[in-house]
């Protein structure tokens, strides 16, 4: 079937791992275009093949287990220790994960607001934006994208726009701290640096 014959539709992926959800509620502009982002992952190669057949770009990530610790294998062969999620096997020395990066443009082509992805709890009720902003890596859920055909002078294809997420297993993202010392037990506070006024004719 020609891509031109593709009928716009919603496509749902169930029981996937959710990663890098920090930009679900707050768009970023990695390529000068604001967008909401989410990565999904599976350990099942047949699921990955199904995603490929449904016009999703699937990347493969390799991991190895050394003495009970998991390491990501980088493209140059270097290893980086990682925290294994629930889809990692407990009794294997190697593991392959299949990932797809999804996005949703924050603005429509006419510049109007495109709306944020809708996020739902396991009971199908809408999740608060604060809670959705704290979805941590390794959460499990169902994801819906809206797919449609596109064509430009330099090519054609099927685009997938992130639409809805239902979080079945919520893992809260770790809270970032500024690294300050606990002063409640008499510890001496760090002395703030002092600065001299900058002259008006300073050469910068």
List the helices and strands and how they pair.
Layout: E1 9-19, E2 35-42, H1 45-53, E3 59-66, E4 69-73, E5 79-82, E6 94-105, E7 118-120, H2 129-132, E8 139-152, E9 155-169
Parallel strand pairs: 7-9
Antiparallel strand pairs: 1-2, 1-8, 2-6, 3-4, 3-6, 4-5, 8-9
Gap between N and C termini, in Å? 62 Å
Mean pLDDT score, rounded?
Answer: 88
Main sheet strand line-up: 5-4-3-6-2-1-8-9-7
| Quantity of strands, as a count | 9
Evaluate the radius of gyration: 22 Å
Question: What's the short version?
Answer:
This protein has helices at 45-53, 129-132, and strands at residues 9-19, 35-42, 59-66, 69-73, 79-82, 94-105, 118-120, 139-152, 155-169.
Report on the architecture of this protein.
It is a single chain. The chain has a domain at 3-60 and 98-169: Nucleic acid-binding proteins (OB fold (Dihydrolipoamide Acetyltransferase, E2P), Beta Barrel), CATH 2.40.50.140. It is mainly β and 204 residues long. Strands 5-4-3-6-2-1-8-9-7 form a nine-stranded mixed β-sheet, with helices on one face. The termini are far apart. It contains two helices and nine strands, in the order ββαβββββαββ. Residues 190-204 have low confidence and may be disordered. A hairpin with a 5-residue loop joins strand 4 (69-73) and strand 5.
Protein traits:
204 residues, mainly beta, 9 strands, globular, OB fold (Dihydrolipoamide Acetyltransferase, E2P)
């Amino acid at each position: 079937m020609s891509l031109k014959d593709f009928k716009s539709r919603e496509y749902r992926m169930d029981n996937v791992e959710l990663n890098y959800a920090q930009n679900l509620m707050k768009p970023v502009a990695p390529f000068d275009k604001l967008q909401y982002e989410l990565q999904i992952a599976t350990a099942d190669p047949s699921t990955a093949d199904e995603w490929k057949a449904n016009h999703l770009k699937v990347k493969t990530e390799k991991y190895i287990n050394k003495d009970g610790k998991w390491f990501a294998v980088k493209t140059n062969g270097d290893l980086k220790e990682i925290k294994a999620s629930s889809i990692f096997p407990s009794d294997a020395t190697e593991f392959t994960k299949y990932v797809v990066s999804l996005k949703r443009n924050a603005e429509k082509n006419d510049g109007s607001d495109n709306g944020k992805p809708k996020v739902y709890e396991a009971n199908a009720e809408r999740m608060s934006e604060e809670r959705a902003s704290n979805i941590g890596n390794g959460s499990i859920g169902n994801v819906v994208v809206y797919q449609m055909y596109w064509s430009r002078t330099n090519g054609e294809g099927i685009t997938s726009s992130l639409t809805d997420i239902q979080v079945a297993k919520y893992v809260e993202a770790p809270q970032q701290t500024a690294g300050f010392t606990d002063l409640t037990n008499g510890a001496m506070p760090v002395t703030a640096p002092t600065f001299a006024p900058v002259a008006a004719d300073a050469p910068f």
